[in-house]
Amino acid sequence: MSKEQMFHYDRGTTNGRVTLVGAGPGAVDLLTIRGQRALAQADVVVYDDLANAALLEFCPPEAKRIYVGKRAGIHHVAQETTCRILIEEARQGRHVVRLKGGDPLVFGRGGEEIAALVAEDIPCEVVPGVTAAIAAGASIGVPLTHREHASAVVFVTGHECAGKRSAQTAVDWAALAKTGATLCIYMGVRRLPEISASLQAGGLPGATPVAVVANATLPTQSLHVTNLATAPFLSETLKGLPALIIVGEVVRWAELRQTMATLQLAG
Ligand code: SAH
What we know:
Elements: H1 3-7, E1 17-22, H2 33-40, E2 44-47, E3 64-67, E4 70-71, E5 74-75, H3 79-91, E6 95-100, H4 110-119, E7 124-127, H5 132-140, E8 153-157, H6 173-177, E9 182-186, H7 192-201, E10 209-214, E11 222-227, H8 234-237, E12 243-247, H9 252-266
Helix pairs in contact: 3-4
């Protein structure tokens, strides 16, 4: 398959194809216009938990909807099954939209889906989405980079499948602690105690500011501002919620914003 085929679905083939669409972090209006257009042209939409189900309303009413959600620890549908569904539906000559929370290629196993499709010669395209880290920062007024405080941002997973651990994929928290980068930790709530301990062992002070944003951009959004030493208690409070952990000096902007909001309320 040529690169052209893969990346320009508008020049489309009459055969089936798959569009991996980033659903954004939650709020419906954070879907891209390109993503909305792909949904409007879908014959089939394959979606999971983090994609806001309200986005399905952009699909034609007759579009087939297939749920392949998985919650932490409980896999409803194996990744191989999801790939097989994409392939089988596309082989019927359909336009399949694979709707994935945030950006499809950030901790979304989108790479595995592309590989499976490419192996079957099925054209596919990727429509990026607003990833949770970017959305979380924006929604609490925290700049992930700042000229004086952070010259780098790291997107890192706090959850690694035991079977996947290898020298290449294991997260070196001690090394990250020394980068001075803002750390945006996905899927980290359950392991906050270990992550906090590892970062401190790596040299980050316990007083390093930490923000945890759950359900970012949704009406249920919550924000907890704490520090590395005390962050572990949030593990229990936020159990089961999609939450993004931001570690670094830039988190002080969240406090600034909260103070401003309080002042506004008081005024
Ligand atoms: N592809 C997604 C990430 C999938 S991994 C993206 O680009 O955003 C799932 C993790 O993303 C969750 O455990 C949580 O850490 C984070 N996440 C997704 N949506 C979120 C939201 N609305 N608020 C906070 N964190 C979110």
